[in-house]
Amino acid sequence: MVIVHDRVPDMEKYPPLPDFVLDNVPLIPWAFDLCEVAGFILALTWVTVLLFHKYRFILIRRYFVLMGSIFILRSICMLITSMSVPGRHLKCAGKNFGDSGLRLKQALVIARGFGMSIQGVRTCGDYMFSGHTVVITVLNHFITEYTPKRYRMVHIASWVLNLFGMFFILAAHEHYSIDVFIAFYISSRLFLYYHTLANTDILRRFPRRANLYFPLYSFFEADVYRVVPNEYQSFFSTKWPFVRLSHSDSIQDDLGKHR
Asked: How many CB atoms lie under 10 A from the CB of residue 203?
């Protein structure tokens, strides 16, 4: 994000690109703050689920594997092409941070503030694709996946926050529509593909291929042999650091508790 800030196109030479949504939705300056509030509520809900979920450490590593993979892809996309600033109201210009020490310092500032504008962080050039959309989408999918089906109001509220958060990003003209759409698509698809593999034994039938094509998956899912049931317990009663899901456990009982 620091590197792409150095390469932000000049707004006078490269004006905002035509965008169907941004051209028809009036600018709402405070909308981006509401998006981050929605993200904070989703994050707080997810942390609450983790505190009481029996298999919290499996959930944590799945969360970080998916988040890390998506943000690595996002970093590559940002570096390949520098898109023009989506709105003239944004005070963005190429900024040279000089040596690597200053760049590292700026990177720490962004990390400390979690890239959030309400924390005083302002970044430019990181448009393809929307990091805020990635975060709220992944949080939404993890919350709805790892809470029982009977928690319908939680699921509805999670989806409402996800969709309204995306709308607020566009209403604030902080990203192009394609940034938000691609971010939602990639985040949701990767989540579904990963959990489809994790909840079946397809790759376990071909361990060599799994190790070759999906090394991270093979490593992090090595001790998980079936669907993770949604069971809850006190935070202090768990085994450290991981709980193993083996074939010897009662699959039928857990499948009944899964939702």
From this structure: 17
What is the Cα–Cα distance from 110 to 120, expressed in whole angstroms? 9
Residues β-bridged to residue 224: 245
pLDDT tens for each residue of 45-72: 999 999 999 888 899 999 999 999 998 9
CA atoms of 203 and 206, how far apart (whole Å): 5
Active-site pick, 5, 53, 132, 141 = 132
DSSP-derived secondary structure letter, 83: P
The verdict on whether 179 is a catalytic residue reads yes
What's the sign of the alpha-carbon dihedral 229, 232, 238, 242? positive
Distance from C-alpha of 108 to C-alpha of 103, rounded to nearest angstrom: 9
Lowest-confidence segment of 28-37, 180-189, 220-229 by average pLDDT: 220-229
Q: Using DSSP, how many helices (H) and how many strands (E) does the chain show?
A: 10, 0
How far the first Cα of the chain sits from its last, in Å, is 39
Whether 173 sits among the annotated catalytic residues: the reply is no
Give 232's strand partners: 53
b/e sequence 109-144, b meaning 16+ C-beta within 10 Å: ebeeeebbbeeebebbbbbbbbbbbbbbbbbbbbbb
Token duo for residue 62: 């799945």
> Counting beta carbons within 10 angstroms of the beta carbon of residue 202, is it exposed (0 to 12), middle (13 to 18) or buried (19 or more)?
exposed
**What SS3 state is found at 245?**
strand
The residue from 179, 195, 201, 247 that is catalytic is 179
Stated as kind and residue range, the H or E segment containing 252 is: helix 251-257
Catalytic hit among 175, 201, 223, 247: 175
